[in-house]
Design a protein that fits this description.
Elements (H helix, E strand, L loop, with lengths): L11 E3 L2 E3 L6 E5 L7 H13 L4 E5 L3 H16 L6 E5 L3 H7 L5 E4 L17 H25 L2 E7 L5 H7 L3 H17 L5 E6 L3 H18 L7 E2 L7 H17 L5 E3 L9 H16 L16 H6 L24 E3 L2 E3 L6 E5 L7 H11 L1 H4 L8 E5 L3 H14 L6 E5 L2 H7 L5 E7 L6 H5 L8 E7 L7 H15 L5 E6 L3 H14 L7 E5 L5 H17 L5 E5 L4 H14 L8 E4 L10 H12 L6 E5 L5 H4 L5 E7 L2 E6 L2 E8 H14 L8
Parallel strand pairs: 3-4, 3-10, 4-5, 5-6, 6-7, 7-8, 9-10, 13-14, 13-20, 14-15, 15-16, 16-17, 17-18, 19-20, 21-22, 22-23
Antiparallel strand pairs: 1-2, 11-12, 23-24, 24-25
Helix pairs in contact: 1-2, 2-3, 4-6, 5-6, 6-7, 7-8, 8-9, 8-18, 8-19, 16-17, 17-18, 18-19
The structure holds iron/sulfur cluster.
Length: about 675
């Protein structure tokens, strides 16, 4: 909860490599070619391999596809490519039994493997439930036996939205259901002495995904004979920055928790583009544990055995935790208002960005402020609500007055930051919010605190600048100040920390505030000095998105070297990914695989172009009807592949137009959205 420790798992063989245990966290991907097309699949595997992909999964819809894995594998080996292959199985036990002759690992979906769907809403009686479970057992055991015989490992990969009718009847479409579905299969494996398994718990909803993995770890580690590895991924994450942000948030939150042994970033793009994103996400954690030896091998520096120290403790029963790891509840905070905008309480988190130019460069500051502020651009523009300018000396105070004169009414959305307490005191009468930086090792003047009251114009944010990671100092100092000022009756206060390890620092802060019953709003801040766009995007998403997914945070402020537009978009993508502030259409699109028979990337772009302004609407764009309708789970509308260049359209879970031409499908989708009263014209 408060410092990084990797959960030590059983090492599982994956052909030429191992996974879990002391191995680095692996990065994998999946082909989107037809598995019967040997040349195209081999070519895509080669490109993935050259990009560094460590494990490649291929879809296996039929026995014929399974048989063709032999040709693909043999050609790759002839080309000197020994990357482990994984067969992805849904439904077909026959395809699974054949496929495992040619691969290192097989992924089965417990939601549809050997499950007979009931196709009715009536609940399962206890007898029916047990009979169905017996049937699963009978069908599954031959696969497990054959996997053992061939030395093939197995991923029990549950997806939110594709659970069996039986599981849904008892647990609903919930993290509990996902976990139980996986555990049923794991129990069968252990009963017959097969232990080469790993798990995944994917969802396109980042919060559900995070909670499901955590719940699985708690239950599986308590019940099963081994600590099994985890494959992490956010499914149907979409494309572009949105897809990268959602993946980084979901996967990164769990990696921060110490969970995860292999990851797949799924993007609706060329799968080769998933690989650098995956490596950018795992880098921090692999760097933490490993140093490169002479032979390029990665010896382990430090892994803590989790079973003895962690998993016997029931996290949900520990009241002092800063949040519930298994279900979402936003941290309660005192609502405040500045510049007439509500912050804290139940209000959506506001976005603040920092003007980079110094006030002495007056023209640049003005231009930046105009570019950053939504109130100046237009009410609906994706821009920040507040722009922060840095005040370093008394001359800056005059320049600030000049700036206000030029900005007119928009001056209210300027906030000021400083590390000088006497400047802060003067700024409290000028702007809507003042951020006073408390630099570690430097004392905050007593006089400043004593002179604070509620008569000032501005709200005050106390921000602890903390260089050393992993300590409880910022939390203790800020909680002490908050308590002192509460006694003094000062109400318009916010708190924040700037540090590399925002996740752990803010968790400690919330824990300390909870302990003292302090409910001041928190500004989640993160500073990235990286000039690499992807690195900055990923670190920001992990370090701040993780907190919002766990209900922590009332404002978001990123300090990056990204362009203004990129930085502001990133902030809104993070809040949307955590589903706490919806500012645009939510697209849930799968990466496509061998089951896709239309140009998914092109279709996604076309749907986005026409519907990106429908704020709050969720649109699923899925490659196939086999898994698409289930896995787009909570989408309002669905555009789903139904066959070669054919599309079916969905309203919620109901298929309303079947098998229409791909050529007309986007137009028909727009008509459908209009018919259901969800369309608004683009301004
Ligand atoms: S929903 Fe997409 S990724 Fe999943 S099986 Fe269908 S085509 Fe493949």
């Amino acid at each position: 909860m408060y410092q990084y420790r990797r959960r030590l798992t059983r090492e599982v063989a994956f052909g030429s490599i191992d996974l879990g245990g002391y191995q680095p966290i692996r990065v994998e991907s999946m082909t989107n070619t037809h598995t019967m097309d040997t040349a195209a699949t081999v070519e895509q595997c080669r490109r993935l391999y050259e990009a560094g992909c460590e494990i490649i999964r291929l879809t296996v819809p039929t026995e014929k596809d399974a048989e063709n894995l032999r040709n693909i594998r043999d050609q790759l080996r002839r080309d000197g490519i020994d990357v482990p292959l994984v067969a992805d199985i849904h439904f077909s036990a026959r395809a699974a039994l054949k496929a495992l002759e040619f691969v290192a690992n097989i992924r089965i979906n417990p939601g549809n493997y050997a499950s007979r769907q009931k196709f009715s809403n009536s609940d399962y009686s206890e007898d029916e439930y047990l009979q169905e479970l017996d049937h699963v057992r009978l069908e599954f055991i031959p696969l497990v036996e054959k996997a053992r015989q061939y030395g093939v490992s197995m991923r029990i990969g549950t997806n939110h939205g594709s659970l069996s009718d039986r599981i849904v009847s008892r647990y609903g479409n919930s993290p509990e259901g996902m976990v139980e579905a996986a555990l049923e299969f794991a129990r069968i494996c252990e009963d017959i002495g097969y232990y080469d398994i790993l798990f995944s718990m994917k969802s396109s909803n980042v919060r559900v995904m995070i909670q499901s993995y955590r719940l699985l770890v708690q239950k599986a580690d308590a019940e099963l004979n081994n600590i099994y590895p985890l494959h992490l991924g956010v499914t149907e994450a979409g494309d572009g920055d949105e897809g990268r942000v959602k993946s980084a948030m979901g996967i990164g939150t769990l990696l921060e928790d110490g969970l995860g042994d292999t990851i797949r970033v799924s993007l609706t793009e060329d799968p080769v583009r998933e690989v650098p994103v995956g490596f950018a996400i795992v880098k921090k954690y692999n760097d933490f544990h490993f140093v490169k030896g002479d032979n390029g091998h990665l010896p382990l520096k430090h892994v803590v055995e989790s079973r003895n120290k962690q998993s016997s403790r029931n996290l949900s029963q520990n009241d002092s935790l800063p949040f519930n790891p298994f279900s979402y509840k936003r941290r309660g905070s005192l609502p405040l208002s500045f510049a007439d905008l509500p912050v804290g309480g139940d209000n959506v988190p506001k976005v603040e960005t920092e003007v980079h130019a110094p006030l002495s460069d007056y023209e640049s500051v003005f231009e930046e402020v105009v570019e950053r502020l939504a109130p100046i651009k237009s009410q609906d523009a994706i821009r920040s609500e507040f722009a922060s300018v840095r005040v370093t000396n008394s001359a800056d105070l005059n320049l600030l007055d000049d700036l206000f004169g030029k900005l007119g009414a928009a001056r209210r959305f300027i906030v000021a930051s400083t590390s000088d307490a006497s400047l802060a005191m003067q700024l409290l009468d000028k702007v809507s919010k003042v951020r006073l930086d408390i630099v570690e090792g430097e004392k905050l003047e007593k006089e400043f605190l004593q002179n604070l009251d509620n008569d000032r114009v501005a709200a005050l944010e106390l921000c602890f600048i903390h260089k050393h990671t992993g300590s409880s100092v910022p939390a203790e100092i800020l909680a002490h100040l908050a308590e002192k000022l509460r006694k003094q009756g000062v109400k318009r206060l916010l708190f924040s920390i700037i540090t590399d390890d925002a996740v752990f620092a803010y968790r400690r802060l919330v824990q300390e505030f909870n302990r003292r019953f302090l409910d001041n709003p928190l500004v989640v801040r993160f500073k990235s000095d990286s000039s690499d766009r992807l690195e900055s995007l990923i670190a920001s998403s992990v370090q701040t998105g993780s907190l919002f997914c766990d209900g922590i945070g009332d404002m978001l402020a990123l300090h990056t070297r990204l362009s203004i537009v990129d930085e502001v978009n990133l902030a809104f993508n993070i809040l949307q990914g955590a589903r706490i502030r919806i500012s645009k259409t939510e697209f849930i699109s799968c990466p496509g695989c061998g089951r896709t028979y239309f140009d998914l990337e092109k279709a996604t772009a076309a749907v986005k172009e026409r519907t990106a302004h429908l704020k709050g609407l969720k649109i699923g764009i899925m490659g196939c009807i086999v898994n698409g309708p289930g896995e787009m789970a909570d989408a309002d509308f669905g555009y789903v592949g139904a066959g070669k260049n054919r599309i079916s359209l969905y309203f919620g879970r109901e298929c309303v137009e079947e098998n229409i031409s791909e050529h007309d499908a986007v137009d028909r989708l727009i008509v459908l959205i209009k018919e259901r009263g969800k369309w608004v014209e683009q301004i």
